[in-house]
Specification:
The complex is a heterodimer of chains A (265) and B (652). The radius of gyration of chain A is 18 Å and the shape is globular. A six-stranded mixed β-sheet of chain A has the order 6-7-8-3-9-10, sandwiched between helices. Helices cover 42% and strands 22% of the residues of chain A. With 265 residues, chain A is of the alpha/beta class. Chain A has two domains: 175 residues, 3-Layer(aba) Sandwich (Rossmann fold), CATH 3.40.50; 79 residues, no CATH class. Chain A contains eleven helices and ten strands. Chain B folds into three domains: 204 residues, no CATH class; 244 residues, no CATH class; 44 residues, no CATH class. Chain B is 72% helix and 3% strand. Chain B contains 24 helices and six strands. The longest helix of chain B has 36 residues. The C terminus of chain B is likely disordered. Classes of the chains: A alpha/beta (265), B mainly alpha (652). At the A-B interface, helix 2, helix 3, helix 4 and helix 6 of A face helix 18, helix 19, helix 20 and helix 24 of B.
Chain lengths: 265, 652
Amino acid sequence: MSGAGVGPGLRLDHLTVAYGGHVAVDDVTLDAPPGVITGLIGPNGAGKTTVFNACSGLVTPAAGRVSLLGRDVTRLSPPARARAGLGRTFQRVEVCNNMTVRENVALGVETMAAGTSAWRQVFPSPATRRRVADQTGAALRRCGLEPLAGRLVATLSTGQRRLLELARATASGSRFLLLDEPSSGLDEDETRAFGRIVVDFVADTGVGVLLVEHDMALVMEICHSLYVLEFGRLVFGGSPAEAQASPVVRAAYLGDDVDSGAGVR
Amino acid sequence: MRELLPFLVAGLVTGSLYGLAGLGLVLTFRTSGVLNLAHGSIAAAAAFLFYTLHTEHGLAWPLAAAAVLAAFGLVGGLFLERVTRSLGDVPVAIVIVATVGLLLGIIGLLSLIYGHASRAFPDFLPTSGFRVADVNVSWAQVISFLIASGSALGLYLFLQRSRLGVAMRAVVDDRTLVGLTGQSPTRVRALAWIIGNSFAALSGILLAPGLGLDSVLLTLLIVQAFGACAIGRFTSLPLTFGGGLFVGVAASLATRYLTKPPLNGLPSTVPYLVVIAVLLAVKPSRLPQAAAGIRSLAAGPSGIDRRLAGVGALLGLVGLLAVPAVVGSKLPVWINALIYVVIFGSLALLVWLSGQISLCHMAFAAFGATTFAHLTTGWHLPWGVALLAAGLCTAPTGALVAIPAIRLSGIYLALLTLGFGIFLQNVVYPTSFMFGGTIFVKAPRPVFGGFDGRHDKHLYFLVLAVAVLTAALLVGIARSQLGRFLRAMSETPTLLATGGLAVNVTRMLVFCLSAFLAGIGGALLVTQAGSVSGVGFGPIQSLGLLAVLALCGTRLLRSTILAPVVLSIVPGYVTRFGLDEQAALFGAAAVVAAILIAQRAALGRWLAMAASTSAGRRAGGPIGARGREETFVAPVDESAVAAVAVPAGVRP
């Protein structure tokens, strides 16, 4: 596994998110550098998806700072953050069922290029069209979706939809990706294939990834470092090996999962 | 201050009746998830039936009232419970279509039975009274107020004391609890519909003496209840009743101060101004079901071969070119149908492709028609230039509606656009800016070179060209990048936003485009007719537009082409098929169409459920809790179907 890339990736400083009186994320500080995969794990309801939503601007934090590639994006809208280089996938897959696979992937590039310009939303420039075709093709190849390119998304399996979301996120040219439980609903083979695609993509492009994931085997294998969230608070930050050894982490989340996970491997 | 007291008393009385209607609305909305836009027409129908029983047949008023309550509360309530239940879990646009259809159907039926002449509704309560602090208060007012607040109090006690009432209160608070209360959800909902309809009927009967027997007036007036509901944030029953009182008093005081045109139209729109203000001020997440409605209706590729579609289009075009030679004196009917291709196309673009909704579409057309009339008769601009300018001037009106659409979707957007339409008709139509005091405008037909639009044949080809251009534009948009953005927006706006697209700009674009087309359609309408009045562009017409569009399916082009056939050509040939018959039939048909669309979705869900069970997966929730099903089914089922349907070989 290679080391972290140069420069800043995604940084959270003392991030706090509250829903009404309930503090879902409490003073979380974490650093996910570019060029590697950083894991964010924790039991259900620990606030992982809320952290993601705060990163991409879907919820407004009560306090704290989100910086992307060294730039403070806390005040930016979701689209502005995306254009600043932040891409993401969703725990509940967000795809357009009434479009083809290719159209869905192209959407990732097109939304980025069109941005706020009404004119460009209606009339994409020839250069954009070429870029859409190139990046869409590359992403479809990377994720092995080429044979399905013309298929209607409504007919895809869960695994194929997860891959489709990944393809769209990687096509867009984002410098940092948030992947929200990409392996949920996938079988073991599909999960391994998924993991390989993400690892290769990160190695090829130097893009940083923050990964929320329940499949511990996958997390231990591909993550460069790990953060553990419990009841909205960070209880651990370190390498996967340290996490396995940490009694705090075991108590909070891993339990015997790690042993059985390691056994499978 | 003293001279305000009579207005205050009158306001409190009508306000209590608005509050009563509002209670019924919130109760049914929160238990069934359906905001019944036809609530007002139920009140109107109740008033008519009461009129027949009491005034025409001399039945004593308490007996007549009891019979009406039994008919509309009990029978109507159970009927509506059944209808809304069979709607199940459909996109909110379809629910809106169903209730709009019900509204139109009832209004049409009432006009068929009772005719159009507005009749006086004799006072059935004693008009004698007493004086308090120099204000005349009639016994009728006292009794009305007591009945309204007594009913509200009765509901309050029922909800506080009885087991079923507590269950209902839980459901009003959080709709997804309906399956968890230990009471049969169907029973809770049926009772809610019975109470809700009874309240509507009661307020209709008690409001009618002051208004006269006019179905449209009664329907739209009781929609004042929406103002009351908005103040209660569509959730709180006590606040809703209080809101009714507020709306009544505010409207009554407004009649005292706003007496000069165009502002004298304002008092009747007070509730809508309240709705608009509340919807714009309250955070959407604090409104029930604010997130519902972002479910796509846009159909996927039709599966029809492109070449076949091309041949079909060509044949259709040849047929249309031959129309003037064949149809003889019926040509105006065909011109009218082609104009409606443009108007329906603009609505289909908005509703089917981008998942938005508009209940004020004829107001856009009215804007186009009046602008066009002013530009041609007033400024003497050439016809073509004026047509384009009429469209371009209407586009900003679309943008105006798009601003609330940024925050709101589904039922709230529907309410807001309905309010906007009523506001325009009451306040802006009578200004010289639009129709003026006489409420009608004139425009000439185009004449250039050898082309003389005064002949229907010439005009036909011109309008045909515009209709074909519109259809081509729709196809072009659907296939373009913008079309993909719109389809994605109707399904998952979050995806677009986190992908870097300024979705608000996209929304603005589609509303402007739609208004542009509707404006062109309006300009063509006034061109054909020579002169048009504002009456033809009212909120009821806008509702009818949506109902007819929905009759013709949810496909962009097919509904755009079929809807004018239903709206213009069929009535043009079947002359006994008058406006009232149309309203009644189209309304009923829209309800049926909505149910069919819902059942189509339910069938798909059933298949998915079967597949997912066989795949060893559990996808379920409290059956009958519509809210629950939304959260459970969508992501799991389709993939489960696919997992079964997709041959193993194609998986990557």
